[in-house]
Amino acid sequence: MIELLTSPEVGTYLGGPRPRDECERAMPETPERRVGLFVIELDEAMIGTVEVNRRDAQRRSHVRPDAGEAELGYLLLPEAWGRGYAAEACAAVLGWFAGALPGQPVVLCTQTANKRSMRLAAKLGFAEVQRYEAWGAEQWMGVWSPVTPPACR
After folding, report:
1. How far is C-alpha 68 from the chain's CA centre?
2. Where are the beta strands (DSSP E) in 10-147?
3. How many percent of the chain have pLDDT more than 70?
4. For the chain, how big is the Rg over CA atoms in Å?
5. Mean pLDDT computed over 33-46
6. What pLDDT score does 153 carry?
């Protein structure tokens, strides 16, 4: 987890990597269980995470009238990029979410400059809702509806 959070490549579109010493201090010896947080493993080693969180009111997107949209996020180690692991893991998590909370949409936000994430959003079936400027870059928000399950192509 520390390698993931401190990777300069992973942090490129997320404001940069977190300082290693900060992560080591903050990381518990035994991580807590969190509903909606999934670890991606390959050969019994963690290569990334996928998470579904509720957006807070300050980041309201108006996809739901009461805000609190579910948002999909994912991080993978650079050596795992380009192999389909993110698509497979995200599709599985979206399937889990659709079964747990039927009918609820999920949003995904990424920088438009992050071409890999833009391709993944399209592959998973996210439809563009809006583009906006934040953190000094153009951002993209898409929404996925569980009416049509995600497909890994």
Report:
1. 16
2. 37-42, 45-54, 70-76, 106-111, 127-134, 137-144
3. 82
4. 15
5. 86
6. 46
Q: Name which of 15, 18, 54, 17 is nearest 34 in CA terms.
A: 54
Please state, as a whole number, how many other Cβ atoms lie within 10 Å of the Cβ of residue 52.
21
More confident residue, 5 or 50: 50
Interior angle at CA 85, CA 20 and CA 10, nearest 5: 25
Residue 92, both tokens: 């599985």
Q: Which residues contact 1 (CB under 8 A, 6 or more apart)?
A: 23, 27, 31, 46, 49
CA distances from 17 to 38, 88, 133 (A): 21, 25, 21
Question: Which tokens sit at 108?
Answer: 């995904």
Give the side-chain half-sphere CA count within 13 A for 45: 8
Taking the C-alpha atoms of residue 132 and residue 113, their distance in angstroms, rounded to an integer, is 13
Whether 70 and 54 have beta carbons less than 8 Å apart is answered as yes
For 11, the token pair is 């942090």
Looking at every residue in the chain, the average pLDDT score rounds to: 85
